Amino acid sequence: QVQLVESGGGLVQPGESLRLSCAHSESIGNIYFTGWFRQAPGKARESVAGISRHNNTIYADSVKGRFTISRDNPKNTVYLQMNNLKPEDTAVYYCAARESITGGMKYWGQGTQVTVSS
Known about the structure:
118 residues; mainly beta; four-stranded antiparallel sheet; 11 strands
């Protein structure tokens, strides 16, 4: 059972940056895909970004050019660098992962709050 622990959330002003971290309890080499998701109050959860074992990345259109996902294999951690944050980025951000090439996300973190407000 892989445990995921997110950190790095907080309150920032529009235009500022944050870096979220997703620490995996086991070797990230066993994980094929890790993704970041977010859920704003009253809205459905949405996919933000994802990265595969081969460092292939995918982004939601709303964050392309502003967010960057990356893997640090020795640290068993996946990061989400968020630049030029906007109020509409406000949400609880969740990290999720799976070992399989396809299918749903198997492991989920507890979430970290990101609030963008002036």
